[in-house]
Each structure stands twice: as structure tokens, then as C-alpha cells.
Amino acid sequence: VLKSGDQARAETALKALLADTTLLNEVRAESAYHLASLADSAGNTAEVGRLVAEINKIDATGIWAQRGSMLLAPKPRL
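Below the sequence we write its predicted C-alpha cells.
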């Protein structure tokens, strides 16, 4: 859905996946990462931080936590 360009629908689907505690932690963490990435693109640093913290609660040692931490790194100034 996200790749189709319908960001609102993608966010709704990703939030549903993140909230579904019956899913694998990896699926939920990936959903949170994609939401954090969208928030990062929108310049919403508070939401990025909240979502990365959520990823770390779900699976602190997984790849999505590692990728999420990169979203928190300072951005180079151009």
C-alpha cells in the first residue's frame, strides 16, 4: 500500500499491524520502523523517538531496532 502512494491508507495498515499483539514481534517492529520512517520524512522527531522506543520494547536486538536507531542519528547538514 505504501509503495502505491496512498500514505494515509498505508499508515492505517501499519498502525493496525503494530497494535496486533498476536503477530510476530518482527512484523510489529517492522511496522513501527516504517511508521517511524514516515514520521522522519515529515520532520516529526517526537514521533520518530516514540516509535523507535516502541521498536526497542518489542525487539531491542533485532534488525528493526538497529535501523530505527539510525533514524535517531543526527542528519548531515547540506
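The chain is about 70% helix and 0% strand.
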